[in-house]
Specification:
The structure is a single chain. With 282 residues, the protein is α/β, with parallel strands linked by helices. The protein contains nine helices and ten strands. It has helices at residues 45-57, 74-89, 105-113, 139-151, 168-181, 206-219, 231-235, 240-244, 263-272, and strands at residues 6-16, 62-67, 95-99, 118-120, 155-157, 160-162, 185-190, 224-227, 249-251, 276-277. Strands 1, 2, 3, 4, 5, 6, 7, 8, 9 and 10 form a ten-stranded parallel beta sheet that branches. Strand 4, helix 4 (139-151) and strand 5 (155-157) form a beta-alpha-beta unit. The longest helix has 16 residues, at 74-89. It starts with 5 loop residues before the first strand and ends in a 5-residue tail after the last strand. The model has no long low-confidence stretch (mean pLDDT 89).
Amino acid sequence: MSTTNEIFLCSICNVTSGNCKEDCKYCTQSAHYNTNVPIYKNKPIQQILQEAKRLKEFGALGFCLVTSGRGLDSQKCEYIAQAANAIKAADLGLHIIACCGRADLESLKYLKKNGVDSYNHNLETSKEFFAQICSTHTWEERFETCENTLRAELGLCSGGIFGLGESWSDRISLLKTLQILTPHSSPINFFIANPSLPLSSTKLTQEEALECVTLAREFLPNTRLMIAGGREHIFGQEQKALFECGINAVVLGDYLTTKGETPEQDRDRVLSYGYTIATSCH
């Protein structure tokens, strides 16, 4: 863990985008909904490497390789391993995260052998509410992948989305489960409504969003809380309160299918609040 004054910067690289067969109601990458997101498979590894180098220049320590689709099959596993190896060979000092859906223990062990440091698999919401937002796979499947990650001795990155229509009891249930898993980092997302998605949810107020962060910090005192999608949507340019409530990591730049601000803007905002940029993952 970094000190309380240090903010860890992480970046996302969407290496396989769109055309997902799952029906998650919050996700613009689902083929069930006409969201017009970019669709491509297996971004060239040289392009991934250039993105990693660029984001490292802005202070990123974490670099997450994300694929759409339900899970990690053998071809996808080999591709991610090759990408991770290329980044490690470049000696950028990045903590490499893979985020590829459902994963068995052997696949995760293979990724670890090939340069992946952590695996990201979000629970998204509570066990009780999950069936309201997805019918093509179960919450239990997600939890099992998180357990497999820990068994493979990879770092676990797992969090969720607030504002899907869940109750406060659902939010507490999610956080209690994350408390059991004790992830080293936990992404905090706020849902952004999209007219093409079947999920209609009232935009969270700033007060409610901050209460979600405060609760997350209470349940996960030793976890790196990473603010991710939706922060600009709710807070605009005034995001200092998020850090005061316990956020100590930021997704730098763009998200999966949503444009963020530039890496420079994100970094400079953190510095303007009086924080420093972490230079070590530990």
